[in-house]
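---------- Forwarded message ----------

FYI, see the 2-dehydropantoate 2-reductase record below. Original note from H. follows.
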Amino acid sequence: MKIMAKIAIAGAGAMGSRFGYMLQKAGNDVILMDNWEQHVETINEKGLTVDDNGQTQVIQIPAMAPRAVKEVQDLVILFTKTMQLKTMLEDIKGTIGKNTAVLCLMNGLGNVDVIEQYVKKQHIIVGVTLWTSELVGPGHISFTGSGSIGLQNIDPREQDRAAKVVSLLNAAGLNATLSTDVTTDIWKKACVNGTLNSLCTLLDCNIEEFGQLKEAPQMAREILNEFAAVAKLENVTIDVDEILTSLQKLGDTSQAGAHYPSMHQDLIQHHRKTEIDFLNGYVAKKGKANGIATPYNTLVTQLVHAKEQILVEDK
């Protein structure tokens, strides 16, 4: 893969649009793929409006429904919602050729099992990202601060492919590195999302506001203790104190403090269903199947689903 490449973003919401914007600025041929018609139409008619650390600009970048993209890409980045992953993979078959790398940077647990049903193992690269972005409205994103990416090829023989993707991302300023244990990285990211995403959504607050609550550390610890117990089933060790320290740092306004997590954006701001079943719900379901008590994650999952019943349109 050359540094300049054909790249398709599968799921062009807040994060997908930010990555598409940064990768196109670096000279790549980028296309945004999304099923939100108003979002796609706005981008094509007016451009993508980007509030980049206080500076607003409009960039021209093509956007299409996933099924409409037939050209094989060098790289496909999966940013769709986990509950929509199977449909997305069906829709984008035409973009994946014999040399296409498929990078999953989605939130949630269990994504690789789904991707392997549609994509050859040697093509799959999985990662976690600490970049943030917010969807202001159709065709309009806003973000501040920086971030990073850790990624790894799931086929041990394909490290060269992953290294080329790292180079491609870094040429766009996306601060990517090769991970040696991406499974643990994914669980750690899920721990962060399983506390901040779900609790900020239920409490209708941003990360800084959550961190200022006197109850925050104990609530987070109870949730994380259950994550750690279930993670052991997959031979993953979670240091709860380490995650709590990370959460505290993220609450700083120089980091992600002013950011409303993606679940809050989906449910509270845009009245869309969430990925709760692939975060707290995943822990609750796997815990129940293996005799591990998960009362906090079970309750959080139930509360988010109840909130969905209240807010989500077309119930």
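H. also flagged this: The two ends are 44 Å apart (CA to CA).
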